[in-house]
UniProtKB/TrEMBL annotation:
Gene3D superfamilies: RutC-like (3.30.1330.40)
Enzyme Commission numbers on file: 5.4.99.5
Gene source species: Oceanobacillus caeni
Descriptive protein name: chorismate mutase
Keyword Amino-acid biosynthesis applies: yes
Length: 122
C-alpha cells in the first residue's frame, strides 16, 4: 500500500540555516516515528509559504544518510489570507503495511495548529 505521511513546521525567520534546520528536524522525526526506509519512498513534496525564499528546504533531504536518490520537489503553498506564516509542509509518499490510522503525522512549532486532530499523544 502507498501512504502519505504529513508533516509541517514553521521557521522563525526567512533565513537559510533556520529553514534547513527546522526542515531536517521535521523530516528526521517523520522518518523515525514511521520507521521509513528511503528505498520505500516514492517521492517527497515540500511546500513553503511565500515568505520563505532564502533556500529550497528540499535540499536538506540530501544530507540524510541513504536519501540521495529519493525524488523531492519544492513548491509554493497557496497564498490564503490569514494563513500560517513561515510554514513548511511535507508530504512523504511511501510504501508501507502500516494502516492509515497508525501513520504518525508530525507537526512542529506553530504548525501544531494546523491539524491538532492528527497529533498522537506520547
Amino acid at each position: 500500500m502507498t501512504r502519505g505521511i504529513r508533516g509541517a513546521t514553521t521557521a522563525l525567520a526567512n533565513d537559510e540555516k533556520e529553514i534547513l534546520d527546522v526542515t531536517k528536524n521535521l523530516l528526521e522525526e517523520m522518518i523515525e516515528e514511521n520507521r521509513v526506509q528511503a528505498h520505500d519512498v516514492s517521492h517527497v513534496f515540500i511546500s513553503v509559504t511565500k515568505d520563505l525564499t532564502a533556500t529550497f528546504p528540499a535540499k536538506v533531504l540530501r544530507t540524510i544518510e541513504g536519501w540521495k536518490y529519493v525524488p523531492v520537489m519544492c513548491m509554493a503553498e497557496i497564498d490564503v489570507p490569514n494563513s500560517l506564516e513561515r510554514c513548511i509542509r511535507i508530504m512523504m509518499v511511501t510504501n508501507t503495511t502500516t494502516p492509515q490510522e497508525e501513520i504518525h503525522h508530525i507537526y512542529h512549532n506553530e504548525a501544531v495548529k494546523l491539524r491538532p486532530d492528527l497529533i498522537k499523544g506520547e
